Amino acid sequence: MNAVILNGGPGNGRGEVCRAVRDAASAEFQSRGWSVRTFDLDGLTIKPCTGCFACWLKHPGICDVKDDAEEYVKAFVASDAVVWITPVTFGGASSALKKALDRTIPSILPFFIKSHGEIHHPQRYTKRRRLLAFGTLLSADPEAESIFRNLIRRNAVNFVPLATETGIVYETEPPQAQAARVADLIKAVGIGERRPQ
Amino acid sequence: MNATPNADGRRALLLAGSPKGLKGTSYELGRFLLGRLEEGGYSTETLAASAAVRSGEASAVLLEAIQDADLVVVSFPLYVDQLPAPLVAALEVIAGHRRLLPSRKPAKIAAIVQCGFPESLQNLPAVEIMQQFAKEAGFSWAGALYMGMGGALGGRPLEKAGGMARNAVKALDRAAASLLQGRDIPAEASTLMARPLVPKWLYRFMANWGMKQEAKKHGAKKTVLARPYESAVPGARD
Fold it and tell me: Are the CB atoms for A63 and A55 separated by under 8 Å?
């Protein structure tokens, strides 16, 4: 089993809590015998999706733009769990995480199907995975948190994961409390129990 | 960038949020609204978010335009349930700047969102994000217009889109009239904009047919369902 972690926090000091979540999540997966692949997005070259649809209609499944996103998409389609980590940015994802999410378009098909009573794109690949989304905030902000949780619910309709969990981690919390939130969410999404040491 | 001077003194900025820049359906919707505002006395300026985050100089131009604006209109396509990445980056720059430096004058911000899905309600998370941005960056929220079936307009100017765009035109006209009077976008304009451009079944049929035709045109008819990274999936068979 393998997990892919996308860290959308900034590479500077402001990204400290995102890195703490990344490390805690990685340790939790590894304690269950999973392999983990981490992408610190702020340090990668990922150009924006331009909506050219070449990945749908010219060379299906492969983006026209050649950069670090291709490795992530390959890892994503093979993953059993994907973890998104982002500072809650106006209730949504940071630009760093969003760049990576926008570039997952090759993993869906151009056609429209009915799903959850709405029209959506079908998945290109049959493999499904568990989705965990961690948003970080300085401190509690009910409005931003509500927008973020609603957004991830909508993302889940489009990404069709096996299970989805969303968590908020506060920068002002002690590190132990942050790690406990991560552990609780990983358990809640159905990853299973830690292996005995 | 284009700027149109006007003696009235009120300034509106269109921030085009599509990664395609100053073309496409989102841009055309914003351009139409900006045209109506210009007719009503606003001087106008247009910037592409994707260009504005490519360099420090371009970002400085964006920040200056934001500082001068009485009304900012952000028009964009829905990407993965929210704003396209370059637009998020532009908003991060704007919010960061406004946290450090107070704005010169109170400014309003409005949003226009369109998506390729038939249901206009799929845009609502993006509208919520724009509203939260307004709050965090110190703008007064002037409301939003959101529409589905954006693909049916195909990036054409609304003036050339025929009868299917009639509700969008009405919605933009009513939004402009309200904004010109210093009020927010009225609910009736949002309701009009959210109406389907064509029947849902027809849109889905035409979209699927159109995708097949485009794939055929590019020699990808037989590979459109390809799984090029399937070998990366453990135990998977093509």
Answer: yes
> Interface pTM (ipTM) of the complex?
0.96
Rounded CA separation A194/A173 (Å): 24
Q: Which residues belong to CATH 3.40.50.360 in chain B? A: 2-198
- Tell me which architecture the domain covering B2-198 has in CATH: 3-Layer(aba) Sandwich (3.40)
Asked whether residue A44 is assigned to any structural domain, the reply reads: yes
Residues 104-133 of B with CB under 8 A from A: 117-119, 122, 125, 128-130, 132-133
Q: Determine the distance in angstroms separating the CA of B198 from the nearest CA of chain A, rounded to an integer.
A: 15
CA B131 → CA A67, A96, B128, distances in Å?
Answer: 33, 21, 5
From chain A, pick out residues whose CB is under 8 angstroms from the CB of B208: 111-112
Q: Do B225 and A154 touch (CB under 8 A)?
A: no
3-state secondary structure of B105: coil
Residue A195 inside a domain? The answer is no
CB B107 within 8 A of CB B71: yes
Chain A residues in contact with B230 by the CB 8 A cut-off are 77, 125
Q: pLDDT truncated to tens, each residue of chain B (238 aa)?
A: 444 445 468 999 999 999 999 999 999 999 999 999 999 999 999 999 999 999 999 999 999 999 999 999 999 999 999 999 999 999 999 999 998 887 778 899 999 999 999 999 999 999 999 999 999 999 999 999 999 999 999 999 999 999 999 999 999 999 999 999 999 999 999 999 999 999 999 999 999 999 999 999 999 999 999 999 988 777 654 4
Residue A98's domain spans which residues? Answer: 2-188
